[in-house]
Amino acid sequence: MKNINEEAFKNLRLAGRILRETREELKVFVREKMPIIEVCEKAEELIRRKGGKPAFPCNVSINDVAAHYTSPPGDEKRIPEDSLVKVDIGAHVDGYVADTAVTICFNRELRDMVEAAEHALKKAVENIQPNMPTSRLGAIIEQTIKSRGYKPISNLTGHQVGKYLVHAGTSLPNVAHVSFAKVKLGEAYAIEPFVTVQNAAGKVENGSEVTIFRLVKQKPPKNPHAKKLLEHIKDNFKTLPFAERWLQNVVPQEHFKEAFRELLLSKVIIGYPVFIEASGKPVAQAEHTVLIAEDGCLVLT
Ligand code: MN
Ligand code: MN
Fold first, then answer.
1. Does the annotation count 94 as an active-site position?
2. For the chain, what is the domain count?
3. How far apart are the CA of 81 and the centre of ligand 1, in A?
4. Given this model, what pLDDT does residue 135 score?
5. Ligand 2 center to residue 80 CA distance, Å?
6. Which segments in the chain show pLDDT lower than 50?
7. Is 68 designated active site?
8. pLDDT for the residue numbered 151
9. What is the CATH number of the domain that holds 218?
10. pLDDT tens figures, 179-191
């Protein structure tokens, strides 16, 4: 493989393999009425057992929730019957990140929409190549989705992945757009079409729930428990997103809420709200991480 060092290539490949296996195991594990937290914990445990670390909390986003829901501690929510479940997972090996997602469909009527998302991803993978304008890739994805009678989510994008970064540098919109950005040889990208029904708004907006967080600033907190939480976040997740679930038992339970609140209020960490389809319509997603090669790409996941 050219334009990428051997170490990066090896780690990316391994992160990709870990995720591919994890995704396939989750496809048969996820069932209606199952507690969502069981899915999150299973995914994260599989990633660790296979020798990687979660690059972000396992996202389980249901129906009109397009992305960014992971179980908070003690989550009692379950997978609803007849639902559309997007399981989005990330793994890293020594900071090299891979990202993949699959939509598990318990609603017969939405199967065709899930296939449209998968088909758009396949078309993107077949067409992506070095120096391709991101606008061209977006147009291919948009056209593929529309040709099947569905609508792309215009404000959710694929993205380049970097060391300890899930969203690095270049974005890959799922629609035709104005940009001079190009796909580069030797770089890794997550391609992720999001699809909804024809009569939907076709965009997402922030919901009120916030379950995923990330360290953005290093300002020493006053509260000693907040300080301890911050140290734990720095040492274990660096600049990668994390869940509140991952911070249990770092400080005494009775001090956790206040310490966590201080980190948020002082903007040392930020939260990512859930993304909800603006007209409340169901959303399907498919995602792979690919490495750009001279003659196209290598699918890592
Ligand atoms: Mn993802
Ligand atoms: Mn992604």
1. no
2. 2
3. 24
4. 96
5. 24
6. none
7. no
8. 98
9. 1.10.10.10
10. 899 999 999 999 9
Identify whether 1 is part of a domain.
Answer: no
Q: Which two tokens stand for residue 40?
A: 């999150």
Active site residue 232: no
Domain that holds residue 255: 212-272
Is residue 217 domain-shared with residue 177, that is, in the same domain? no
Question: Are the C-beta atoms of residues 171 and 134 closer than 8 Å to each other?
Answer: yes
Same domain (yes/no): 126, 258: no
SS3 263: helix
Q: Catalytic: 99?
A: yes
DSSP character at residue 222: S
Kindly state whether residues 200 and 230 are assigned to the same domain.
no
Residue from 167, 177, 232, 255 carrying the catalytic annotation: 167
Active site residue 167: yes
Confirm if 129 and 183 have CB atoms less than 8 A apart.
Answer: yes
Q: Could you say which of 64, 142, 192, 277 is catalytic?
A: 192
Tell me the β-bridge partners of 62: 85
The rounded Å distance from CA 296 to ligand 1 centre is 21
Instruction: Assign residue 46 the CATH number of its domain.
Output: 3.90.230.10
What's the 42 CA to ligand 1 centre distance in angstroms? 17
